[in-house]
Amino acid sequence: MMSYLYIPDFLSVFDFWMLVALSFFTSFLTAAIGLGGGTIMLAVLAQILPVKAIIPIHGVVQLGSNFGRAAVLSGSVDKTLLLYFFIGSLAGALVGGKIAIDLPVDALRMVLGIFILYAVWAPPKLSLPATNSAWTLGGFLSTLLTMFVGATGPFVMAMLRPFKLQPMSQVATLAASLVIQHSFKVIVFGVLGFVFTPYIPLLGLMVVVGFLGTLLGRMVLLRANPPLFTGILNIVLTMLALRLIWLALGQVL
Question: What is the pTM (predicted TM-score) of this model?
Answer without folding.
Answer: 0.76
